[in-house]
Amino acid sequence: MNRLWAPWRSAYVTGSGGNNTECIFCSTSEPDCASLILVRGTVSYVILNLYPYNNGHLMVVPNRHAPNLATLTAEEQAELMRLTRHAEIALTEAYAPQGINVGINLGRAAGAGVLDHLHVHLVPRWNGDTNFMTAIGETRVLPEDLAATVKKLRPIFERLAREETAATAETAKAAENKI
Ligand SMILES: [Zn+2]
Question: Residue 141 Cα, ligand 1 centroid: separation in angstroms?
Answer without folding.
Answer: 29
